[in-house]
User: Which sequence fits this backbone?
């Protein structure tokens, strides 16, 4: 029972989700449901501080860890949950989405993310990721009257099930080889000399890496991302881009640094391929997009590449850089999607940003900040985070990959700054966008503050990271 | 391997029983073949049809509600077998599990899943 202390944030979220499901039929006002989500997210993040000092470090038979790594990501997922809920206020009203069900799904998906960051056992990891992705399928297709959403949900479901099967098969193979599913025993078994060249072991490592690469939309497992982001409503796309990706990264960092640490050479080869493909595919395909959500989807693929860059050396510093990147990326992509949400239907297409600076200068300034951060221009958090991951790659001797990352960064400047050019250097088109709810503004401000602070004080995020 | 002999004997006996019955039926039984009887699956359903027909959405609803109780049973059986060893904590855990499942059932009920008209 004392082990339950490790899961207090998850329990808070699940409790609130169950309560929302119970009263679902009577909740008509999105404000109420969103407020309850924000309250439980704050409570979950607060409970991390309350329970951080005391209690066991691992629990539930050595499957859940309550270390600093878990706490870092729990706070990140709670922030992601709260910001997404605030962004959703407008969409819940406009798209006739049942608010209580929507918020319950957000809560449960976040619970899954926290669980996958806390897991030190492959099966619990799978459970957490699966909880996240099953809720995500429904969230993507929750606007049932829009055919594009249904299409996106079906695509996501089919590809996601396949990736889950890959991951599960990899777990099965690893269990067959090592006789365990917990990270410590796998690491011990893998370091045995006889197992090092076992083809079955390498198959298991590759399958698990492939399954996890799907969750973070790393090329060549990225094909779902553009269609799903475009088909989902903007808040859901933001939730997936920031949270789902961070959850996958949390899982992959812990697996790489603990379970597969003795196989770092093999992992590095896999990761180098994933990073190079993600950078090239994401950056080049984003250039030709005219839909804002698709553009951000391809940008998220490229950013997966940057985030994984820190993981290649397999060092503590590199993992810290990856964790920083995951959190910084979460805030800046939430902010960019936030502006898309604020502009409503107009924000979906690139053309809608024409002359935005003339009609609504504050919104345009927010967008400019997030775009600069996504490009990686100082003094924004995106620059500090990108600098850290590229530095870790250079230190580990992957100079060619680092050069590729910088080149892709320059390419990405083209399509990010094209939006800025549209906003600031073209004539306004149509009428000014209407006012948007205070909740959306509040979330935008939070994301912007995080982006600026992370840029002015580069250690603001890095000092909180605790690699596994 | 000796502990599997019982299973092997059971498989052989079951196979022999089925073979004897099918054989006897085909030797002794009367044969009046007709077009319907010669279909691959003689069960009253048309074996092949274009998927243009309509199916009531209620079937899916019923199937999903069935899954709810199916999952419940999957966990209830092993729990009942191991109940003595689990003690009071096991009882509490199963209570929580059933409670969470019933929240889902209540949601379906509350939203009219059981009203057929």
Assistant:
């Amino acid at each position: 029972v004392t082990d339950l202390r490790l899961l207090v944030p998850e329990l808070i979220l699940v409790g609130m989700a169950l309560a929302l499901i119970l009263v679902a039929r009577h909740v008509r006002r999105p404000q109420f449901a969103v407020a309850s989500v924000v309250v439980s997210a704050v409570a979950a993040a607060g409970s991390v501080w309350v329970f951080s000092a005391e209690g066991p470090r691992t629990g539930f038979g050595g499957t859940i860890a309550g270390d600093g790594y878990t706490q870092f990501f729990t706070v990140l997922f709670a922030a992601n949950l709260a910001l997404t809920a605030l962004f959703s206020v407008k969409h819940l009203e406009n798209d006739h989405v049942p608010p209580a069900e929507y918020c319950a799904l957000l809560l449960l998906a976040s619970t899954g993310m926290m669980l996958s960051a806390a897991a030190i056992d492959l099966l619990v990891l799978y459970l957490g990721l699966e909880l996240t992705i099953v809720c995500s399928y429904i969230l993507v297709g929750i606007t049932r009257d829009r055919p594009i959403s249904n299409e996106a949900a079906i695509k996501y479901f089919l590809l996601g099930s396949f990736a889950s099967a890959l991951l599960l098969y990899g777990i099965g193979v690893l269990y067959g080889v090592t006789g365990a599913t917990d990270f410590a025993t796998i690491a011990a078994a893998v370091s045995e000399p006889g197992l090092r060249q076992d083809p079955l072991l390498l198959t298991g490592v590759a399958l698990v890496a492939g399954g996890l690469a799907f969750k973070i939309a790393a090329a060549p497992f990225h094909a779902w991302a553009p269609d799903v982001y475009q088909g989902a409503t903007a808040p859901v796309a933001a939730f997936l881009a920031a949270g789902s990706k961070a959850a996958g990264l949390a899982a992959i960092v812990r697996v790489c640094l603990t379970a597969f640490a003795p196989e770092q050479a093999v992992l590095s080869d896999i990761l180098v391929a994933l990073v190079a493909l993600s950078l090239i595919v994401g950056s080049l395909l984003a250039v030709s997009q005219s839909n804002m959500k698709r553009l951000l989807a391809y940008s998220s693929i490229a950013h997966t590449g940057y985030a994984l860059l820190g993981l290649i050396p397999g060092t503590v510093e590199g993992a810290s850089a990856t964790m920083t990147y995951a959190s910084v990326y979460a805030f800046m992509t939430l902010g960019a999607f936030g502006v898309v949400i604020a502009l409503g239907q107009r924000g979906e297409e690139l053309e809608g940003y024409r002359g935005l600076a003339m009609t609504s200068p504050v919104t345009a300034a927010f967008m400019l900040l997030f775009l600069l951060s996504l490009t990686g221009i100082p003094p924004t958090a995106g620059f500090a985070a990108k600098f850290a991951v590229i530095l870790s790659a250079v230190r580990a001797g992957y100079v060619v990959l680092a050069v590729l990352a910088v080149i892709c960064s320059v390419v990405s400047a083209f399509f990010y700054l094209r939006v800025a050019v549209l906003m600031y250097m073209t004539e306004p088109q149509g009428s000014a966008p209407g006012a948007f709810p205070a909740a959306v503004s509040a979330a935008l401000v939070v994301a912007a503050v995080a982006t600026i602070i992370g840029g002015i004080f580069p250690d603001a995020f890095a000092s909180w990271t605790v690699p596994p | 391997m000796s502990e599997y002999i019982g299973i092997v004997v059971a498989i052989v006996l079951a196979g022999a029983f089925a073979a004897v019955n099918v054989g006897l039926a085909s030797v002794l039984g009367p044969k009046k073949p007709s077009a319907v009887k010669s279909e691959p699956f003689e069960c009253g359903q048309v074996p092949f049809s274009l998927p243009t027909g309509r199916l009531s959405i209620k079937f899916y609803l019923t199937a999903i509600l069935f899954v709810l109780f199916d999952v419940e049973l999957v966990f209830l059986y092993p729990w009942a077998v191991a109940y003595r060893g689990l003690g009071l904590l096991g009882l509490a855990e199963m209570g929580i599990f059933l409670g969470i499942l019933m929240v889902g059932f209540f949601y379906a009920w509350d939203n009219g899943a059981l009203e057929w008209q």
